């Protein structure tokens, strides 16, 4: 992975974490145990600190950054969907940020909350735990049910399993010229998109 020290500060990646080789880590970045960092993610700890706590995932093309002297934190089991941008905010334990959402400075997404896809969360935003947050600018729509929180947790567990799979057997290779005759189908998880209501 492209990993850069700046002003004598080097990123830290726990050995049980998986960081894709195309992700970029700069400076004061802490990737904790069992974390997943997807392809083309950018974690720029060149101004403020970036922390991913145990079991958090940061998916493809996400960007994490902060103003000088500020932190951007994804707490334990945080789940950040494809293309999201986090800037100087805190994603509390077991919360999820949907695809292509933006969460701005000093916003705090409470534990077990879900930010809907393509939401824009303004600076200084806060909410109660287990909130469903949607829109641009984002607002709390309602409280999440236990079933919805459980659905999110199962999705995060799939990414924790993916972390182990990547460490154990993902290897760079050359593509095949055509589909092989006995091509296996991936048999991973049973996450049902319809099972979240």
TrEMBL record:
Signal sequence interval, chain numbering: none
Tell me the InterPro entries matching this sequence.
Answer: Transf_Hexapept/Carb_Anhydrase, Trimer_LpxA-like_sf
Entry superkingdom: Bacteria
Name of this protein: Phenylacetic acid degradation protein
Could you read off the lineage of the organism from its UniProt record? Bacteria, Pseudomonadati, Pseudomonadota, Gammaproteobacteria, Pseudomonadales
């Amino acid at each position: 992975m492209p990993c850069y020290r700046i002003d004598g500060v080097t990123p830290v990646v726990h050995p049980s974490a998986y960081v894709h080789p195309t992700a970029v880590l700069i400076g004061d970045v802490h990737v904790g145990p069992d974390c997943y960092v997807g392809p083309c993610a950018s974690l720029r700890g060149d101004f403020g600190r970036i922390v991913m706590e145990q079991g958090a995932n940061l998916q493809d093309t996400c960007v994490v950054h902060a103003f000088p002297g500020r932190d951007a934190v994804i707490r334990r089991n945080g789940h950040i969907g494809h293309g999201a941008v986090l800037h100087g905010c805190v994603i509390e334990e077991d919360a999820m940020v949907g695809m292509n959402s933006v969460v701005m400075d000093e916003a705090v997404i409470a534990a077990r909350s879900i930010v809907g896809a393509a939401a824009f969360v303004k600076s200084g935003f806060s909410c109660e735990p287990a909130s469903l947050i949607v829109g641009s600018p984002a607002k709390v729509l309602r409280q999440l049910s236990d079933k919805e929180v459980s659905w999110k947790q199962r999705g995060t567990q799939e990414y924790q399993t993916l972390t182990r799979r990547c460490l154990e057997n993902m290897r760079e290779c050359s593509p095949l010229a055509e589909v092989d005759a006995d091509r296996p189908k991936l048999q991973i998880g049973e996450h049902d998109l319809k099972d979240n209501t």
